Amino acid sequence: MDWEERENPKRLVKTFAFRNFREALDFAHRVGELAERENHHPRLTVEWGKVTVEWWTHTAGGVTEKDREMARLTEALLG
């Protein structure tokens, strides 16, 4: 898994590239549906041609196994 780990708070971060805003928005929507289904919600930043997804668990103060699983599930949305 090629997610970057950042600090303050400790979190998993990855930016996904798309051909245009519509594709980026569609992907963000799929991530949102995943988050609702799993009741675990990321920070999403949508820009023209890219979406940055950040996973961490607020109550744990950082990255948990659930965050790693959500990152894997996020990757699977591309396939």
Give a quick rundown of the structure:
Keywords: Lyase. The protein has 79 residues and is an alpha+beta fold. It is built from two helices and four strands, in the order E-E-H-E-E-H.
Largest sheet: 4 strands, antiparallel
Averaged pLDDT, please? 96
Q: How big a fraction of the residues is strand?
A: 25-35%
The CATH topology label is Gyrase A, domain 2
Oligomer: single chain
Instruction: State the helical fraction.
Output: 25-40%
The CATH superfamily is: Transcriptional coactivator/pterin dehydratase
Features:
Gyrase A, domain 2, 79 residues, alpha+beta, four-stranded antiparallel β-sheet, 4-alpha-hydroxytetrahydrobiopterin dehydratase activity
Structure commentary:
- This protein is 38% helix and 27% strand.
- It is of the alpha+beta class.
- It has one domain (24-79): Transcriptional coactivator/pterin dehydratase (Gyrase A, domain 2).
- The two termini are 15 Å apart.
Write the layout of secondary structure elements.
Elements: E1 4-6, E2 11-17, H1 21-38, E3 43-47, E4 50-55, H2 65-76
Antiparallel strand pairs: 1-2, 2-4, 3-4
